[in-house]
Amino acid sequence: MKYIEIDEELYRFIAGKTERIGESASEILRRLLNLPVEQVDEQRPEAISQPGFDALDANAREALFNKAKNIVEQLVTHRPKTLSVTNSEVLEPQVAQTSVPQSVSELKSIDSPLPEFNFDDLKDKKLISEQKGAVGRFMFLLSGLANLVGNDFNQVLKIQGKGRLYFACSKQELLDASQSANPKQIGSSGYWVTTNNNTAKKKRILTEALVLLGCDTEKAQSIANFI
């Protein structure tokens, strides 16, 4: 029985080809190389000499090298072929593509665009003058705005101060935010507004509501000045 040194990778390869318990490395190699498999009584020596190449003459070294080369080449030939897949053949999972807005203008375009309203319809000086005080004019203009824009009036819920709530869908919601809010219902819109602000603040709230609903700033300020 002859003994040779093999590296770790080759050892694992041979061990991985074991088909039955107790099968020796010699039997595995014979089977892989299509040589007749014989039951060999292995006699392990007490010590294995490990001569280096330098201890062999040139002919012996060349013969040993060629033999080892042939064994390795035959083992490699009998290894299972691996499937080679190019990048173009890899099927990537199909993921639903969601368009992500890249700018403020794109964000605006996602929402349904507001229709163009004729805000000049709110400038009825005669009716405005008939209202009682700044609160009356404030409520009259807000009610006219709600009638003008319809369902889009819900945009006013976005108008909030620092720790303050100006618009809500119920009286109680405004009272919960501030007991002194003095909330009033805006016509028949179903929305409520706080009225305990001074006239200048009421103008700013109305201006912001008008601009939010599509009115240009200059016109919005001129309408708010009717308060």
Instruction: Kindly give the count of domains.
Output: 2
Q: What's the CATH first level of the largest domain?
A: Mainly Alpha
Largest sheet: 3 strands, antiparallel
CATH superfamily of the largest domain: Replication modulator SeqA, C-terminal DNA-binding domain
Task: Give me some keywords for this one.
227 residues; mainly alpha; Replication modulator SeqA, C-terminal DNA-binding domain; 3-stranded antiparallel beta sheet; two-stranded antiparallel sheet; 9 helices; 42% helix; DNA replication inhibitor; DNA-binding
Question: Topology, pairings included?
Answer:
Blueprint (H helix, E strand, L loop, with lengths): L7 H9 L8 H8 L25 H20 L26 H7 L14 H5 L3 H17 L10 E2 L2 E2 L1 E2 L2 H7 L5 E3 L6 E3 L4 H14 L4 H8 L3
Antiparallel strand pairs: 1-2, 3-5, 4-5
GO cellular component, one term: cytoplasm
GO molecular function, one term: DNA binding
Keywords: Cytoplasm, DNA replication inhibitor, DNA-binding
